[in-house]
UniProtKB/TrEMBL annotation:
Gene3D superfamilies in UniProt: alpha/beta hydrolase
Pfam families attached to this UniProt entry: Abhydrolase_1
Family the UniProt entry places it in: Belongs to the AB hydrolase superfamily. AB hydrolase 4 family.
Name this protein carries in UniProt: AB hydrolase-1 domain-containing protein
Molecular-function GO terms, alphabetical: monoacylglycerol lipase activity; short-chain carboxylesterase activity
InterPro entries: AB_hydrolase_1, AB_hydrolase_4_sf, AB_hydrolase_fold
């Protein structure tokens, strides 16, 4: 996002791409996601203005998000709202930018027409809100039915379906694949709240637990990475085979969002998904790594490193005696995510260094090739 400022709220829209970015103070975290779930589901169910257009004719984003278009100022939006048609301004913020906007699509996002109001007291600081939500958000009870898929390299991933949905929902019900963040899975509160909201709208939901996450099996000396889309590709193909009459969608958080957007970019106009949502995507992993080591962000870095170590220790025997550049002691005792990636992840996926891994795994390099409707919330 070379044209996006992180200090001003931004709204970017092209015929197949929508991104919403608030100011740094108002960057939505996990608790903010719950407040906007209704808008996300409404947007996915709103008839697209591109319905009926064959995917093979879908214009590529690189032809749509031109620098001149990206520089459209909100004054254009304001002038359109004063054309005598009596319509209200699409967005209330004077610093918002729009590229290729269509009113029919914007109408599906009610919260975008209202100023952002943080949750009283707790949201006055993004760190306070994040920590408060982590300790106080309820954990809904969901009965899952687990399905394990064997991958071509003899690994395994776990899909958690809602038990009983096969009988309760029609065969053509839309399917939503959820991709949790780093070390996340179907046990996390934010995942379950999104799952329940989608089910209340008649959607079939499945949680894609990456290798080792949510107690999914690990059968090889490899976990998963920000660059690897093979497991997701297999999951999408599997879901399509099972529900050939359904529209398939996907939503990802954080690292899961990065993997999702990379997958969409790799698939281009051959993508089988009907739409996708990316939430709190790091996009540029080099910058994300630098930010992880600043101020209070170190707390999150250490917490994620603890979760990575916990997953690793459950399967440590698989990594005994590995040759090459592996630094197993460094991964096993990692104090930061970077330590773990340096000792294990980047070697497992063939990168020369951790910096090489981050610079070549960023979804910011893939988004220009996305050809399906994609909503990004930062």
């Amino acid at each position: 996002f070379p044209h996006v400022s992180t200090t001003q709220p931004q709204f970017l829209l092209a015929p197949r791409f929508l991104a919403v970015q608030r100011s740094e103070k108002c960057i939505p975290n996990l608790s903010a996601h719950c407040r906007r779930e209704s808008d996300l589901m409404a947007a996915l169910q709103t008839p697209s203005p591109f319905a009926g257009t064959a995917r093979r004719f879908a214009p590529r984003l690189r032809y749509l998000l031109l620098p001149t278009t990206m520089s459209l100022s909100s004054s254009i939006v304001s002038s359109r709202s004063r054309d005598g048609d009596g319509e209200q301004p699409l967005l209330p913020h004077s610093s918002l930018e729009i590229a290729g906007a269509r009113r029919g699509l914007l109408a599906g996002f009610d919260s975008l027409r209202r100023p952002y109001r943080a949750f009283p007291v707790f949201a006055s600081n993004r760190h306070v809100e994040t920590i408060f939500a982590a300790f106080t958000r309820s954990l809904p009870t969901v009965a899952f039915r687990r399905e394990c898929l064997r991958t071509p390299d003899d690994g395994a991933v776990a899909l958690d379906w809602v038990s009983g949905d096969d009988r309760a929902l029609p065969g053509d019900a839309p399917v939503l694949i959820l991709l949790p963040g780093l070390t996340g899975g179907s046990q996390d509160t934010y995942v379950r709240h999104m799952l329940l909201r989608a089910r209340s709208k008649g959607w079939r939901v499945v949680v894609f637990n990456s290798r080792g996450c949510a107690n999914s099996p690990v059968t090889t000396a490899k976990f998963y990475s920000a660059s690897f889309t093979g497991d997701l590709r297999q999951v999408v193909d599997h879901v399509l085979t099972r529900y050939p009459q359904s529209n398939i969608y996907a939503a990802g958080w954080s690292l899961g969002a990065n993997i999702l957007v990379r997958y969409l970019g790799e698939e281009t106009d051959k993508c089988s998904l009907s739409g996708a949502v990316s939430m709190c995507n790091p996009f540029n992993l080099v910058i994300a790594d630098e930010d992880f080591h600043k101020g209070f962000n170190n707390i999150y870095d250490r917490a994620l490193a603890n979760s990575l170590r916990a997953i690793f220790k459950k399967h440590a025997l698989l990594f005994e005696g590995l040759d090459g550049e592996y630094d197993i002691p460094k991964a096993a005792n990692a104090k930061t995510v970077r330590d773990f990636d340096e000792g294990l992840t980047r070697v497992s996926f063939g990168f020369r260094s951790v910096d090489d891994y981050y610079s070549n795994s960023s979804s910011s390099d893939s988004i220009k090739n996305v050809s399906i409707p994609l909503l990004c919330i930062q």
